[in-house]
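User: Structure tokens for this complex, please. No commentary.
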Amino acid sequence: MVELPAFLPALPELFLAVSTMALLMFGVFGSDGTARLVGQIAVVVLLCTGLLVIGHGTERAVTFNGMFVMDGFGAYMKVLVLIGSALSIILAQGYAEREHMNRFELPVLMLFATLGMLLMVSANDLISLYVGLETQSLALYVVAAFRRDHAKSSEAGLKYFVLGALSSGLLLYGASLIYGFGGTTQFDRIAGLIAASPTPPVGVVVGMVFAVAGLAFKISAVPFHMWTPDVYEGAPTPVTAFFAAAPKVAAVALILRLLDGPFGHMVEQWSQVIFALSLASMVLGSFAAIQQTNIKRLMAYSSIANMGFALLGLAAGTEQGTRGVVVYMTIYMVMTIGTFAVILCMKQHGRMVEDIRQLAGLSRSHPLMALGTAIFMFSLAGIPPLAGFFGKLYVFLAVIEAAAKHSELYILAVFGVLSSVVGAFYYLRVVKLIYFDDPIETFDRQSDDSIAAVLVGTGLFTMFFFAFPVPVLNGAAAAAAALFTG
Amino acid sequence: MVIQSIVFYVFSCALLICGVMVISARNPVHSVLWLIAAFFQAAGLFVLMGAEFLAMILVIVYVGAVAVLFLFVVMMLDINFVELRRGVVRYLPIGGLIGLVLVSELVAMVSGWVPAAGALAQLGAPVPPVDQISNTRALGQLIYTQYFYLFQTAGMILLVAMIGAIVLTLRSREGVRRQNVPAQLARRREDVVAVRKVPTRGGV
Amino acid sequence: MASFWSGYVLPLVIIVAEIVLIVGPVMLGVAYLTYAERKVMGAIQMRQGPNLVGPFGLLQPIADGIKLLGKEMIFPAGANPAIFIGAPVMTFLLALVAWAVIPFDAGIVLADINVGVLYLYAISSLGVYGIVMAGWASNSKYAFLGGLRSAAQMVSYEVSIGFVMITVLLCVGSLNLSKIVLAQQTVWFCIPLFPMFIIFFVSALAETNRAPFDLPEGESEIVAGFFVEYSAMAYALFMLAEYGNMILMSAITTILFLGGWLPPFNVVPFIWVPGIIWFAIKIAFILFVFLWVRATVPRYRYDQLMRLGWKVFLPFSLVWVVLTAGVLVGFGWLPKNIG
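Assistant:
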């Protein structure tokens, strides 16, 4: 008989998978009105999964023949992913009912995507990395096209699918080269083999570059960002919020685990790649956003620039840098969800509007919403003492520290500061529109309590992060340490 | 051995020719048929390697199911393929350039290929050797034990794909009369037939 | 040079002789299956059936064959010649190559391969190509509709056939057809797996496009379906393939569920009869049921056909796979020597 592997480290994933399938059955066989209930149960399921993750603790455990790893880093990132998904599902509820896409499959598919993200975060093998990524992506392609009667939504889904398939191809090609080098797909063994060879051979370097390119596509780092604005614009708004939050966290986690784990001894090689990705993303994201008038496209470029800042910390190649990335992703996710909660409130005569000029004079008709928007915009621009500032602070600190050894990192830091100044321009333009321009037409009254709750929660986090930064900082430090000590 | 190598070269050459024909055939239906032929040659190569299970699965899954759907779609499509070819000519230079760059990269990489020192040790076969048990059994032992995590996750991917296909295409139409088999079967003679005594000149 | 003769030429000659030995009787069987069909249908409908050519009309199939050979082949305008000719050839070929792995008696089999069941499954799943290609290449609406119907139908029913085969394989522990037969020495699988037997038989009807699942031909709405444009020898090849497939599916049913060449009881009068005769008798019985069904059951409507395949057979056979596996594991009845 074969010995059963340990299932306990994967308990959250197992729970999520089984309850998602149960929820699917419930949705299929339930009556027509179950969509709302399914959404509510989905949030509860995510909460329970989060509790299971926390309950497991931060002890490192490897199971399924070394394909699955659970450690402090995984626990932190999984909780983050789960929060992002739960908030997105809450945002999607009211929207779905208004826009006649109220079908139970939406929360179910979002749960499947979340499952894929958890598997990505816990991947300890090139194949499990790929299957996790594919579970996530496939569900995301479908939810992007969820409003199938709208040309833009279908276009978003199709575009995302075709380019996503291409990026999967790149990733697999890289993985095959790495396998050809090491004869193994498992992260720990690859790390051992790379550590043992004096200089990494060109084959494995090329393989690593391809794998990073495939993953860079998922976090929409320049030059793999082409899909982002169209998909963000076309997909239903809460789905866009979901895209901007949870998958980004999971993909960044995957990049961190891959580069700090098996390729931990190739910092010299990959830091150049990350350097280029980070620089290009920051600059392009900031400059291209200036001329956007659609707020969802604006957020797309904003997320590109933000990914550039996150990669900045990784380019440092140190534990400090990794901690910076984790903190940045935490704050980025909360800010993004909050901003999308604001976007979801932008309605005129019951219809969604996406043009930022419609925000003009918001302060006079909806002072609270205007305040919330202003907070998120200031925070995204990195104005102290809001949360966004601290995210950038820790990343830049790590880069400056590492720059003592690698002087080219100073260039990166300078470009980072410059592009955050450029970025501040378009974020502050929104604030100017809200507070200083004359109103054209006012928005409808906000009636959805759940969106308001998300808005208030994320707003409070963003505002008062400076007062209570310790849990996040400690968590991020522990996560980074778990990754580096192995 | 002679026969084996002859068969190998026959299958390989045929596979390459079929592959070329897939992309060069003018008629898309012919392309799909060439593709099917290519699958067959690949299955033949698998048999030659002693991987008969894979060969059969290749034929069953790809030829018997996937290619049928391809054929189905291609036959019903109404695409002007002359138009498409014009695009090919236009993009040929840039496509060829990218292909050339990739090929030269591959050559550069393979020429400098150095597997890790311990790579061969890592490759060690994790199953009883294939010459002792049938390869169906060997595959089963691997998939359902060592790789069962991946196997299950792949199942989840397929489930998501299925849900996606249904979500994006299924429409419930109004006013369609559906056959209700249990209702038909539950129908009794007494419910629908009444025997009445009709008086002469009286009518019902 | 001697090794060349004994090593290559002699085995080749032997293999060719064996192939002829298998194909000859199969073709003869096909010819007389058409005769049997007309006689059985005649009897059921209180007619005589063919009775003029030769004693009891026994030479009728020969006469039909000669007539078809003598006809002129007609190419429809705009047909795709290579595929138009290729389709019947391929259909006919597939109906014959499957016989390579069929065990007629203990040890009497052309190729005793390990994955015999998969081979049969693969070959039967290819049958759809001949029909789809014929439908497309004829450049005719009726033929095209017939081809599409056939493709959808065969793909649908293959799935449940696959699951039925899996339940049998679970009980045997091998994909080798001879081992499957030998595993039925105590009891034929049609008894413990009776529902699967029925599903397999019905799916076999659908897979061979026989009544009541002969929608690809559907003469009342699409004339003769996929072979409406065919004539002469090409038409004859389609008919030969259809009847060849019927015999093949009967043989597979016999092997999977009726104990192949094994006698019904392992006692004296039965074991005197050679295995190959038992095999033939069982095939003949299944074939008779094929004809019987054709003569009695009206044709399914298309949506009913799809409903039966996807909503009834598929879930049912899936449940049976799980159930069989559960019972085998639960009672410790799993086959011991897996191979």
